[in-house]
Amino acid sequence: MGRTLAGDLARYYDLDLRDDPGDLDLYRALLTRIDGPVLELAAGSGRLAVSLALAGHEVVALDNDPAMLARTADAWAARRGRRPATRLRTVEADLTTVRLDERFGLVFIGLNSLFLLPGPAAQAAAFGTMAAHLRPDGLAVVDVLLPDAGDLSLYDGRLLVEWVRDDPDTGEQVVKLASARHDAATATVDLTQLFDASPRDGGPVRRAIRTDRLHLVNVRELTLLAEAAGLVVEEVVGDYQMGPLGPGAERAVLLARLVQ
Q1: CATH code, 106
Q2: Are 42 and 84 found together in one domain?
Q3: Is 109 in contact with 129 (CB distance < 8 Å)?
Q4: Contact present, 175 and 162 (Cβ < 8 Å)
Q5: Is the pLDDT of residue 152 over 70?
Q6: Are 136 and 260 a contacting pair, CB within 8 Å?
């Protein structure tokens, strides 16, 4: 099968997250006090789902991008060893409308994926999906960035080089550039990511481009979305170590349960 833009972008997503952001430890810690199974919405290429399945949890990785899910399946096949193949399942679906005939102990949307949904209505629907798939004792988790004024001031359309890395799958050298523009009136960020791949033995540079409109959410909006979906917010913490949310927090991690 030939190369595709979707396949390249899925591979570059893994390359972009080569350094662990630290969120895996959060979900591992939560699963010491919650019985599975686990549903990850917007699972991407399986960075979290595969690791949680390797740790012994039954995991469903759901995403609407078949190229991402193909990398999830490949990573699981390569790493699962003698573990049951069914411990991790991939589901291609729209997380705003999907309804599985299953309930889960942990349902989560990780690492800013909520921002990728097309506006408040879709974000509200995502919370509804989490609530619809929780067991009575289950936990819903959403993890989002809280950009401060300094961060937003950089979102002025300038093009920045973020990294230069070797792609282990192709042997190419890849340069990532990104440009972001913040609109305060709509609380959105138009993000363009460019990946330039250069063959080691010379030849033309190939460019893959991804554009997204990010719909930012603050802590109050996050809480209201949860409550509107029939969830009660148990806690909102400020980092992956469950530290308190306060001035200067870079993230908000919301933990919620079904209203009893």
Answers
A1: 3.40.50.150
A2: yes
A3: no
A4: no
A5: yes
A6: yes
CATH number for the domain spanning 155: value is: 2.20.25.110
Range of the domain at 196: 149-215
Residues 175 and 127 in one domain: no
Q: How much of the chain exceeds pLDDT 70, in percent? A: 99
| For residue 1, pLDDT beyond 80 | no
Please give the Cα distance from 138 to 34 (Å, whole number): 7
Task: Tell whether 33 and 125 lie within a shared domain.
Answer: yes
CA–CA separation, 189 vs 90, rounded Å?
30
In which band, very low, low, confident or very high, does the pLDDT at 35 lie, cut at 50, 70 and 90? confident
Q: Which stretches of the chain are assigned E, i.e. beta strand?
A: 38-41, 59-63, 88-92, 104-109, 134-145, 156-166, 173-183, 188-198, 206-215, 231-237, 251-258
By C-alpha distance, which of 54, 106, 57 is closest to 76? 54
Dihedral pair phi/psi, residue 64, rounded to 5° = -100, 5
> pLDDT tens-digit profile of 75-127?
999 999 999 999 999 999 999 999 999 999 999 999 999 999 999 999 999 99
Count of structural domains within the chain:
2
Q: Is residue 211 domain-shared with residue 223, that is, in the same domain? A: no
- Residues 43, 168 within the same domain: no
The model's pTM: 0.96
